[in-house]
Amino acid sequence: MFVRFTPSVKVLSVSNYTFVVRSGFRCVVNVRKSLSTIACYPRDGKFSTMADIEYTELSSNFSDLVVFDVRNRHELEEKGQILGSNCVPFVELESAMEMAEDAFEAKYGLKKPTKTTPIITHCTKGGRARKAGDLLKSIGYNARVYAGSFNDWKANGGSVLNPGKPYVPQN
User: Fold this and answer.
1) What's the pLDDT score for residue 49?
2) Which residue from 142, 143, 141, 124 is spatially nearest to 133, judged by alpha carbons?
3) Which of 134, 113, 109, 132 is nearest to 122 (CA)?
């Protein structure tokens, strides 16, 4: 049972779970485990077919993928960045993917990925990465999410550039 999306947040208790509609997503929340989210689905009710990527697969195929760090530039500078990742902040992502190829390259320092290029999104813990992956998928890109994100990368001993050096366009 799901609640239809409305602009306001609605809560409907069902058995051991609460279905919460927030920000256009239907979220199933386990109320017995300190409100931990079990799953979120887009408001259209379609389940995401996007598969997450784990550390082992990402690290062994890194050179074949485009990795977008969707944190803000200052976060990379303060906390570091995955070596070889590209900073495309979540707040800029949609407009970035609408840019012409030359404008994208000038602003982000890499060739704009095609719709078929495998793009991996990550952030600090995975929240923005999931939103970024969903956004990219919704506009036709081949996106996956590194759900563990930067924290998992560091915990697994992945190469980190610290401080991070996000690309800065030359004006």
Assistant:
1) 54
2) 143
3) 132
Count the alpha carbons within 13 Å of 46 in the hemisphere toward its beta carbon. 7
Q: What is the pTM of this model?
A: 0.70
Closest CA to 150 of 65, 85, 101, 64: 85
Q: Who contacts 127 (Cβ-Cβ below 8 Å, separation ≥6)? A: none
Q: Where in the chain is the domain with CATH 3.40.250.10?
A: 55-161
State the pLDDT at residue 169: 79
Classified by CATH at the fold level, domain 55-161 comes out as Oxidized Rhodanese; domain 1 (3.40.250)
40 is catalytic: no
Alpha-carbon distance 144 to 61, whole Å? 13
**Exactly one of 27, 40, 87, 123 is catalytic; which is it?**
123
